[in-house]
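Long-time lurker, first post. I've been practising inverse folding by hand and with some scripts of my own, and I keep getting stuck on stretches where the structure tokens seem ambiguous. Below is the full token string for one chain I'm working on. Before anyone asks, I'm not after the true native sequence, just a reasonable design that respects the backbone. If someone could post their per-position residues I'd love to compare against what I wrote down in my notebook.
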């Protein structure tokens, strides 16, 4: 999914449904990565859509030694200009009192 498609979906949701909350959060462990979300009352009940933007991983370096008991870490090299986005849809589950992720085929079938 692209940023333009995400903005179109958010616009359609705002036109058709009552929006409870929306926002953007930065991811702490990945530089220049963020999650945009919108929570609304939809046809399946309370829904949450997320669009995550992350930089492309260019390289992965393992740092450590081969001695017994030594620690190993992984260092990622991220692109400065290339990003990719992922889309997830969630439905509120009353019995579990938590967000339940919808299967990709169910999320794709959801129309606004």
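-- Answer (accepted) --
I ran through it position by position. Result:
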């Amino acid at each position: 999914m692209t940023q333009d498609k995400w903005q179109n979906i958010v616009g359609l949701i705002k036109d058709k449904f009552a929006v409870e909350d929306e926002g953007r959060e930065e991811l702490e462990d990945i530089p220049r990565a963020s999650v945009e979300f919108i929570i609304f009352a939809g046809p399946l009940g309370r829904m949450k859509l997320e669009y995550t933007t992350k930089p492309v991983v260019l390289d992965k370096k393992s740092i450590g030694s081969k001695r017994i008991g030594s620690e190993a870490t992984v260092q990622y090299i991220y692109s400065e200009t290339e990003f990719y986005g992922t889309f997830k849809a969630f439905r509120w589950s009353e019995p579990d009192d938590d967000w339940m992720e919808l299967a990709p085929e169910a999320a794709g079938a959801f129309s606004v």
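A couple of notes from the structure itself: The chain has two helices and five strands. Residues 3-109 form one domain. Happy to go over any region you disagree with.
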